[in-house]
Amino acid sequence: MSSRLATKMAASAKQQQAARAKGGKTAVKRAASTVSSIDGAKKRRRRRRESYSLYIFKVLKQVHPDTGISGKAMAIMNSFVADILDRIGEEAAKLSICSRRSTVTAREIQTVTRLLLPGELARHAVSEGTKAVSKYTSSQPGLPPHAPQQ
């Protein structure tokens, strides 16, 4: 054990004893926090992983309230949603570049959705997307109520 570490531990022990003698808890908490970071290095925060699991679960409960989903199935659904959204983003960017526009609008997203998804699934996705965009614009003050063209 290094001398610096031993000194810090002794100092924290003295602080704890002094806090107990006073009957206060705040000094004990402070001393404990210095003990946890004795070596001077900050604890690394775990990187948050983005996942659509919560949203997939909410939709599942809206459609089938009494049905559950396994961890493997959730991982597959999460991967599927991430893949589809990635494809939509890439294709919408390509489409906006081809049309010499710098902004990807709801119209490009709608067009790409029609291209990527087959038949009936595309129609449902476009109608749900249109509904979501109109709901969002109506909730925002100052934005005109505008729905994308179908």
Quick structural summary:
The chain has 150 residues and is mostly helical. The protein is built from six helices and no strands. It has two domains: 34 residues, no CATH class; 87 residues, Histone, subunit A, CATH 1.10.20.10.
How would you describe the overall organization of this protein?
- With 150 residues, this protein is mainly α.
- The protein has two domains: 3-36, no CATH class; 53-139, Histone, subunit A (Orthogonal Bundle), CATH 1.10.20.10.
- Helix content is 68%, strand content 0%.
- The protein contains six helices and no strands.
- The model is unreliable at 25-35 (pLDDT under 50).
- This is Histone H2B.
- One of its GO terms (molecular function) is DNA binding.
- It is found in: Chromosome; Nucleus.
* Low-pLDDT windows of residues: 25-35
Mean pLDDT level? 81
Could you state the order of secondary-structure elements as H and E?
HHHHHH
- What is the overall silhouette? extended
Fraction of residues in β-strands? under 5%
| CATH fold-level name of the largest domain | Histone, subunit A
Number of strands: 0
The CATH architecture of the largest domain is Orthogonal Bundle
Question: What is the helix tally?
Answer: 6
Q: Label the structural class.
A: mainly alpha
First-last Cα distance: 71 Å
Please report the first level of CATH classification, the CATH class of the largest domain: Mainly Alpha
Query: Any idea how many domains?
Result: 2
Region (Disordered): 1-44, 128-150
Biased composition (Low complexity): 1-26
Family: Belongs to the histone H2B family.
GO cellular component, one term: nucleus
